[in-house]
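Exam revision sheet. Question 4 asks you to relate a sequence to its structure. Input first:
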Amino acid sequence: MGVGADTLSTLITLKNSNTTYGASHFTYELTFYDVNGAPITSLRRDSFIYPGQIKRILETGLPIPIASVNRTAVQLAEVEWKPIAEFSLPRIQLRDVRFDLHPDTRELVATGLVRNDNPFRISRLTVIAVVSGTARNPLAASKTFVEDVAPFEQRFFQVIVPRIDLPAITPDLVDLFADAQR
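Answer key, structure tokens:
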């Protein structure tokens, strides 16, 4: 997804079809390739995925000219598997969600409440907003973090998605994803 001529964001979707084990830690390498198949650049990051989870990872504001990228690839390494009894998906809710499209800047502002429905503290909640076109192809995305959420606490969140080139935004064109790290 282009943010500007020299900046891009990319959305990675990972599916853990194993419902009894999750990865409490893994490293991923995201590589960008040009039209000749040569690597332009790579980045390495750490993450996690719960048993049975479909995880979205959004890398934003990468200083890579979008016109130079033909394809991307993701490789996982250093996976540390844990049984569901030790590493289960926390229960979180997104509530009172609202979407507003700013008429001048064409920014989408997604707001709402995120709730920790667990008897334990969550160190970081991530909320990702993805705007898709009518063919459901992602056009733009952004994310925000909510830190140190107490058990059963709810907090306000706001995600601002940069310029959207659509005449109107309807809720069916916006997907919100929440992820929690204990």
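Marking note for examiners. The mean pLDDT is 91.
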